[in-house]
UniProtKB/TrEMBL annotation:
Residues 518-728 are annotated as: Disordered. It comes from Plakobranchus ocellatus. InterPro entries: Leu-rich_rpt, Leu-rich_rpt_typical-subtyp, LRR_dom_sf. Keywords: Leucine-rich repeat, Repeat, Signal. This is Leucine-rich repeat-like protein. Residues 622-696 have a biased composition (Basic residues). Residues 1-28 form the signal peptide. Residues 700-728 have a biased composition (Acidic residues). It comes from the Eukaryota. Residues 532-543, 568-602 have a biased composition (Basic and acidic residues). SMART domains: LRR_TYP. Gene3D superfamilies: Ribonuclease Inhibitor.
């Protein structure tokens, strides 16, 4: 009995130990998989480990699994069934081509090899709220592929060769963003849920927007159609989109601005189209447009009152167009306008009242206005913009010159809020002292690359630059320098002493040649540069100063090059004619320097055919050699007709053992090396002629050609030989 009691105790103890071990193993944490990098704060990082299959076990509290940049091809249906807390699965950059049902709950499948989306591929994932399928090979999408995703909010499908979407059925009524850019789409996908607020369709092949294409997306706020091929936009295609705030139509083929735009539209971007004019009435007085960008179009004019009454308009961008004139009331009654950009336009005239009632304009950009003449400005150009803070005229010589002209003469109101006046890279030679009076609070006035005329009239600028406590910046890259007079050229204004300033009489009135040199020194070719203060800028009666034109650009340098080339050519012709006349005179006078034949030549003449026969034989040899050389050159250029055929024959001989590799090539090199030069052959020929003449008793005349003259041409040598033979 006692023994049975002890056995029962041991059994109970053993059972308890087994239960403890079992319970402990059930509640213990599963370690991080050995093939993963780390498991910290609920995120398992298994990226870039060359995995072909996902690990089977993860810690139970894992919410994020990162499997990016591996070699996974298939995600099975039970891959992550033991992870009830899993919220996000990252598998971008793998080789996945097959999706199984209920494999994941939240996933990023970008940059894989998925080719199609079937009807049931995503059906079980009813809690899925984000699908990322970017940069795959999807070309086919089933109409009901997203029908069961009732919680879907974000759909990313960019960079897939879809081409055409079917009539889709979306089950989610909370879908907010759809990105289908770079999908080669030819039309806008529809119908989309009304809840979509952000629709991105850029970089496709869409050619038109019809009136019903966007009828279902009533809550749309952002519409992007950049970089398509659009030529047609229906007038009332987006009128019903009362919440639309941003419309992107850049880089299309539009020739007009769509009519009946929603009044709630805040930003309109139509850069890079073919718009030539802005039609009247496009923007109503109730429009809430804040920013308008029409850069890089073909707009040549702006009709008066085009933007009148647009009380919310803040920024207008007309850069890189063909606008030549700003007429009266072009920009009028724009109380909120702060920024106006007109750079890169061939502007020639700004009429009176073009900027009327622009009380809040702060920034005016007119950079690189390259015109042939000075821009016509009215005296009230600046007073209409009393709150202007920045005026940028960099690289606009005609406009900057016109502004400097009206400053001393006009009754202008000082602009107390102007802080930056950029007139760098122009052709200004004089800065009127009234600049300091009209812009009392300016802190930056760059004068880089202006050919300044350092006379006493410009000494005030040096005083301003060296004033104690001055915070004004006068250059960005290089300090202002003198261009005239010549003795001060290249000197900075700060280095000139008071007794070095030039007088007006020392320099004189600017001539046309000086004008060209000033433009070249400034590095620009627009606008007529003036180098005198206003009181001395009037030319004499009858004097004309030609305005700059593009055809005069660099004219002086071209003339110098042509003159130098012509002089060099004349020198050569003169030297040739002198040598030729000298030879003819020597032949006529019979001045032939006697040239004794060598003993070898005298011995060779004994016991051999006559000199005439030798000459004929030598000429025949030379002729045959010349023909052979010509044929060889022809064979090298003419494909298999010559050189290649012979090379092929030699190769076949080498293979058959009948020839030695490289033998023919070495022989040709040796012959070429031992072959006499053209000059030596010519001398030998003349010696033979001399020997022949001496044997006939015709005297010992020889040709008057100097053997050491290496500069004569071959044609001149042949002419001289013919003359010598005729005279003898």
């Amino acid at each position: 009995m006692r023994r049975e009691t002890q056995n029962l105790r041991w059994r109970l103890l053993h059972t308890a130990m087994i239960l403890v071990v079992t319970f402990g193993s059930g509640q213990g944490e599963v370690p991080c998989p050995g093939r993963c990098r780390s498991c910290v704060s609920g995120e398992a990082d298994c990226s870039r480990k060359s995995l072909s299959t996902p690990p089977s076990l993860f810690p139970p509290n894992t919410t994020v699994i990162n499997l990016e940049r591996n070699r996974i091809r298939v995600l099975g249906s039970r891959t992550f069934t033991r992870l009830p807390s899993l919220e996000e699965l990252k598998v971008a950059g793998n080789r996945i081509s097959i999706l199984s049902n209920d494999a994941f709950g939240y996933i990023n499948l970008g940059r894989n090899q998925i080719r199609r989306l079937g009807e049931n591929d995503l059906a079980p994932l009813i809690n899925l709220h984000s699908v990322d399928l970017r940069s795959n090979l999807i070309s086919s999408v089933h109409p009901r592929a997203f029908k069961e995703l009732t919680s879907l909010r974000y759909l990313y499908m960019s960079n897939n060769p879809i081409v055409r979407m079917p009539l889709m059925e979306f089950g989610s009524q909370v879908l907010q963003m759809v990105d289908m850019s770079r999908c080669q789409l030819a039309a806008i996908p529809k119908p989309l849920p009304a809840s979509v607020t952000d629709l991105r369709l850029g970089h496709n092949s869409i050619t038109q927007v019809n009136q019903t294409d966007l009828s279902s997306v009533t809550d749309l706020q952002i519409l992007s159609l950049n970089d398509n091929q659009m030529t047609f936009f229906a007038d009332r295609a987006i009128t019903h989109l009362t919440q639309l705030s941003e419309l992107f139509l850049r880089n299309n083929r539009m020739v007009y601005i769509p009519r009946n735009l929603p009044n709630a539209l805040k930003m309109l971007y139509m850069d890079g189209n073919n718009i030539q004019e802005i039609q009247a009435g496009v923007f109503g007085s109730e429009s809430e447009l804040v920013s308008l960008s029409l850069q890089s179009n073909a707009i040549n004019s702006i009709q008066p009152n085009t933007f009148a009454g647009m009380s919310f308009l803040d920024t207008i961008n007309f850069q890189n167009n063909q606008i030549m004139a700003l007429e009266t009331d072009a920009f009028v009654d724009l109380p909120s306008l702060t920024t106006l950009m007109f750079s890169n336009n061939p502007l020639q005239r700004i009429a009176d009242g073009a900027f009327r009632n622009l009380g809040r304009l702060e920034r005016l950009y007119m950079v690189y206005i390259m015109t042939e003449e000075d821009v016509q400005l009215e005296y009230n150009f600046l007073p209409e913009m009393l709150r202007l803070q920045s005026l940028n005229l960099m690289g606009s010589p005609g406009l900057a010159e016109s502004l400097m002209n009206i400053l001393p003469e006009g009754h202008l109101t000082p602009l107390g809020e102007l802080q930056s006046l950029d007139i760098s890279y122009n052709t200004l030679q004089f800065i009127p002292p009234r600049v300091r009076e009209l812009f009392p609070n300016v802190t930056s006035i760059p004068l880089d690359s202006n050919p300044l005329r350092c006379t006493h009239a410009l000494a005030w600028l040096q005083d301003w630059m060296e004033e104690d406590g001055s915070t004004v910046t006068f250059y960005k890259a290089e300090e202002p320098m003198c261009h005239t007079p010549l003795r001060l050229r290249g000197r900075t204004l700060s280095s000139i002493s008071s007794d070095e300033w030039a007088d007006e009489s020392e320099i004189g009135i600017l001539t046309q040649t000086d004008d060209a040199s000033v433009r070249n020194a400034a590095g620009f070719g627009g606008g007529m540069a003036r180098d005198q203060p206003p009181e001395a800028r009037k030319p004499e009666k009858g004097a004309k100063v030609k305005a700059y034109s593009k055809k005069y650009r660099g004219r002086d340098e071209r003339d110098k090059k042509q003159a130098k080339k012509k002089a060099w050519h004349n020198e050569i012709e003169l030297a040739k004619s002198e040598r030729k006349s000298k030879k003819v005179k020597d032949v006529q006078k019979g001045k032939f320097p006697e040239k004794k034949s060598s003993e070898s030549e005298q011995r060779s003449a004994v016991g051999k055919p006559t000199a005439q026969a030798s000459l004929v034989e030598e000429r025949a040899k030379l002729l045959n050699r010349a023909k052979a050389g010509k044929m060889k050159r022809k064979g090298r250029k003419g494909g298999m007709k010559g050189g290649k055929r012979r090379r092929g024959q030699r190769a076949r001989k080498d293979r058959k053992g009948k020839g030695k590799k490289g033998k023919g090539r070495n022989r040709r090199r040796k012959e070429k090396k031992n072959r006499p030069s053209k000059k030596d052959r010519e001398r030998k020929r003349r010696r033979r002629i001399t020997t022949y003449k001496s044997k006939r008793g015709g005297g010992e005349e020889e040709d008057g050609e100097d053997d050491d003259d290496d500069n004569d041409d071959d044609d001149d040598d042949d002419d001289d030989d013919d003359n010598n033979l005729a005279l003898v």
